[in-house]
Every structure is written in C-alpha cells, then in structure tokens.
Amino acid sequence: MVVRDWFGLITGLLIGDKGFISKDLDEECDDLAIDLQIPLKRNMPDLRPRKAVSRLMRARRRIETTIGRLARKILAYNMSLSFKQS
Length: 86
Description:
Blueprint: E1 12-15, H1 23-31, E2 34-37, H2 50-85
Parallel strand pairs: 1-2
C-alpha cells in the first residue's frame, strides 16, 4: 500500500479515502504517531465529532478538486504540444 511508503517520513494528520479502512493500517499509524483520518462507510458507526468530520471532508474535497484541475491542465498542455508537433 502506498501509504506505507510515507512511514518514517511524516507524523501528524494524514487524510485518506475509504480504501485505507484497515485495522492493521490504523494500528501501524498509531504506532508511528500518524493520525489517519478516513471517511467511514455508511454502515460503520462514526464516533468522531460531526464538526470535525465535516471539516475533514471539506479539506479532502478541496484537495481532490485541486488535483483534478492540475491533471486537466497537464493533459491540455501535453495535448497542445502533441498537436504542435504533428
């Protein structure tokens, strides 16, 4: 799993997605002082404060939007280079 590549390099808050739901991964993160925060599935009880979860989801949405915009710009730039060469 890619997140394990960061072990030893970071501490603190790490925001992930539902693919990171794993008891083993959660325990590993706890041992390394990493606060792994992920959205839970609908059928899972969430004991975290609603306000904190809402803030995390807003931050996550902003990050994903920014990455998506960057990817589109890179794609458009590469396509324009490709059209200029042909």
